[in-house]
Amino acid sequence: MSIFRRLLNVFRTDRLARDARREVDFHIAECIDELVDSGMSETEARREARRRFGHTDDVKADVHRAEVLGWLDAVFTDIRYALRGLRANPGFTAVAVVSLGLGIGANTAIFSLVNAVILRSLPVWNPQDIVQVTLGGSRGTFTVPLWDAVREQQEALDGVLAHGDQTFNLADGGVVRRETGAWVSGGYFNVLGVPPAVGRVFSPSDDVRGCPAVAVLGHRFWQREYGGDEAVVGRTISLNGNPFEIVGVSASGFEGVHVGRTANIFTPICAADIFYPGRNLLDARSSWYISILGRLPRGGSLEEAQASLAATARGVMEASVPTHWAPDEQAEFLENGLSARAASTGLSIVRGQYRTALFTLLVVVGVVLLIACANVAQLLMARATARQHEVAVRLAIGSGRARLIRQLLTESALLALLGAALGVVFARWSSGLIVAFLRQGGSTVSLDLSLDLRVLGFTVLVATLTGILFGLAPAWRSSRVSPQRAMRGSGRGLVGDSRHLLGRSIVVGQVALSLVLVVAAGLLVGSFQRLSTIDPGFTPAGVLLVETGWSALDLSEDNARVFPRELVERMESIPGVVSASASLTTPISGASWNDYVVFDDMPRGGDLPLVYFNGVTEDYLRTLEMRLVAGRGFDASDRDGSAPVAIVNEELARQFFGGENPVGRTMRTSSHDSLSAPIEIVGLLADSKYRRLDEETLPTALVPLEQAGLWGSGVHITVRSSGAPTAVQPAVTEAMRQIHPAITLEFSTLEANIAESLARPKLLATMSGFFGGLALLLAVIGLYGTMAYNVTRRRNEMGVRIALGAPQARILGLIAGEAGRIVAGGLVLGALLAFAATRPIASFLYGVGATDPMTMAGSALMLALVAMGAALLPAWRAARVDPMVTLRDE
Q: Which pTM value belongs to this model?
């Protein structure tokens, strides 16, 4: 009976009992017929048949034991025997389990991240029915007027909701205390099917123009800040200096629809007027920050929703077209369509940012697991050689080959399960460590890394496949041992060259795969080093960044225009401050301000060039230690009302002036067919990075802050100190408090901005370096094991050679030459694989190609040296064999 059927019988005992009962009844009926034919009456025949057959319940029990319990007993016997064998060889067991634990654990760790970021559904009711409404098939953000039109006109979805990421300040002035949150529509929680844990959630009446200031707290935030006190309902919480009444707490486990970003506080979208009075964000038709989700109706399909939304699109666009846009821009806006896409896994910037990186790492750890499996297979084949006599005896006394293979596979499965158990522990530790590398918007990413059925199923599947992968070949070879040969003497040469050939082939594959990983690690580490040492065009050391906010001061536009100068002057008076300046954005922050420009002395035609801007005060260049190539910097005369001026970088001069000095030229910004006043270029600045370190240099222009014309309720203050930048932070806080206690402050450093920009390259460099090193170590262990086995196998041959006068150098060269051939074969195969395998990581590289010959050659040389070093010890042992001992053994 097949193993599958026996295993199935464990779970269908009732059916097995019925089959046994029918079998017994059939045999009794046959006996009755034979007795009746011999002359007995039917009554006597029935009595005699039952007497001869015995107690039927005992027969049925014997059948059940034979079919089920006997098989289970054999399985448990195999397990007990395998456990005894593993305990008897603790060194072998430890090496195998650790190798598999690292391989399986690495796969589980990366898969748990893939699961959390990409695969896991939102913790809402029927998440498979959640869809995201998109504009033009791909754009996922909308304006509030567009949201209003979609909500009123759509008929495709059984409820829609709006979501906008927001960060709230809980402090009433002074140092900012940030908490992530969201602006949401009134039906947000009801559409998602998320009930309140305490109090109530929002209703449509909470999200109307002029709405009251109400908030719903996230469950984890409620536990952390209020200790789970249910009396929190009715209290107030300060958000950006505004009191909001807490009306409820969301259900446990729900942290918003944006994966990777925890929403701790929810407020209605209409609260935008409370946070930003006078800016009319609810009617702004050019402010794109709203995401729209909906729920498919019962029995409805995504295709039907897409068709219905497409039919509604024209009316939605007409109801929300920006009236201040040019006619051609309005016509283009009206052509936008509406569609929908599945969104059971929610929204996520992290998903788009790290998806390719995570899948790349998943492939890398899969290769590491293959190398680990090859090592364990080597160990098992070496162990099989040592167990030849045992296997031969078992075969000689009648054990079948299938039974023997099952016993050996049981041992492999136990190793795989022990490795999986160790791997889960390793994965729990390492996945949290990897998440620390993931950054989004200046803060660490929040992910649910709990072990769900998908992760556990993946681990079990990997462990099962791993056990079969490394256990099947050794088990099959062991079962083919010849009892007659094994029982003669020591049984040398039993496995012979076939095993050695297989072992060498495995090591060649290990070296090849290791070279691929080492090359990938070399490329990514080299790229990270280039980014880490690149000249950004300014000096980040010693620079403190202070993001200020003064919305509570209610300054007029004229006062707001000159207020940054007062802040800068106060900063420069602080002891230890070398210089200070104010700007609209800071370098390497990811934020940008760009506009189309027209150069007055250049012919127009085609698309207008896009230039990146920043508004700065006069000491900005000195504070950041940026180099002025030609012309002048800004001074106190460059104020509001004076002639507009700008300083441009060398990249702008190269792109639009052929590399000539642009000082004295003029340009204008273009917005919706209207041109600004002429802006004179008064300075040429050396190139510097703008948004990210790994970007191509952008054409950039600096303009005086007072002439920038973009006034909100805060600016960025850049402070250069003579010592550590954080040392002047208390003095900066006190100086700001003296100006006005309601001014909010958020501190960071320019070096932290750069570290933020390097988060993804650092993750890839660190992980690839670790796994590349691990692969190299495993390959070296595999090569050492193969060569050590070869020396043991050929020990008598070496003794004879030495006895016949072969010098030790000859023996050493013989073994080293064999190792060299194995390594050379692996390097050739690995080089071919590396040329194809490293191309997908080209998008992660900076300043180096995916097939960089220097990295390829350096990786191959390093791998060859390390591998040959590992082969020297077995070669040295072979050269020191005592010929008398080996000949005596022979």
A: 0.75
